[in-house]
Amino acid sequence: MSKIHIVGIGPGSMEYLTFKARKVVESADILIGSRRALELFDNVDNEKLELGAGNMEEIFNLAVYKAGQGNSVTLLSTGDPGFSGVLKPILKLADNIDVEVVPGISSIQMCAAKLQISWDDANIITMHGKGISNEIISMLSNGKPTMILPNRTVNELAKFLLENGIDPARNIAVCEKLTYPDERILKTTLKDVVNKKFNYMCVLVIY
Fold first, then answer.
1. How far are the Cα atoms of 45, 52, 94, 202 from residue 15, in angstroms, in the given order?
2. Taking the C-alpha atoms of 184, 130, 157 and 164 in order, what is their torsion angle to the nearest 10 degrees?
3. CA pair distance 97, 77, nearest whole angstrom
4. 3-102 has which fold?
5. What b/e readout covers 12-27, taking b as 16+ CB neighbours within 10 angstroms?
6. Do 158 and 193 contact (CB within 8 A), yes or no?
7. How many Cβ atoms sit within 10 Å of the Cβ of residue 160?
8. Nearest CA to 106 among 67, 66, 77, 144?
9. Tens digit of pLDDT at every position of the chain (207 positions)
């Protein structure tokens, strides 16, 4: 049966790639991923296809087609493929393709490690591709830290929470560009991040 590997490449740094991930990538005929994902494997000699916000459907269909033609196809997923990754859309397309997932370290895991949060006792929510949902408001009242992958910006989410009655003095942490050389972790209050600028690669924690 034809096969696609979906490989989690971690939060961004080469240090957090697994040996399994490297092995699968090096054996692939075709490597597919975002620009920053592909840059991790510049030294690997295989065909590379860049995945972007505007061509996802086209590239996913091409990946399934190429695998069906007997090519070894590997899709790179930042973080872990099963959490805001590419696993879900590929499974919808790959009816006759065997899919193997190689898990990776997600930014949520990295954030929990940096802040020493036992994340089995936390609320965890992703807004990637979904927009802001009112379900977050009820989560914030259950006494657990809430770890969030914002859909667009931290500022947008902070404004939404303030407009929906969340205490401006609520303690938060913003973990930005985790594992990169310019990683930043800011501990502050909700009202103080509304006018600050952050990179899109952030995890927000509300205590």
1. 21, 24, 31, 19
2. -150
3. 18
4. Cobalt-precorrin-4 Transmethylase; domain 1 (3.40.1010)
5. bbeebbbeebbebbee
6. yes
7. 17
8. 77
9. 689 999 999 999 999 999 999 999 999 999 999 999 999 999 999 999 999 888 999 999 999 999 999 999 999 999 999 998 889 889 988 888 899 999 999 999 999 999 999 988 999 999 886 767 778 898 898 899 999 998 878 998 999 999 999 999 999 999 999 999 999 999 999 999 998 999 989 999 999
0.85 exceeded by the pTM?
Answer: yes
* Residues 34 and 3 sit within 8 Å (Cβ to Cβ): no
Pairing verdict, β 171-176 and 184-189? antiparallel
CATH class of 107-206: alpha beta
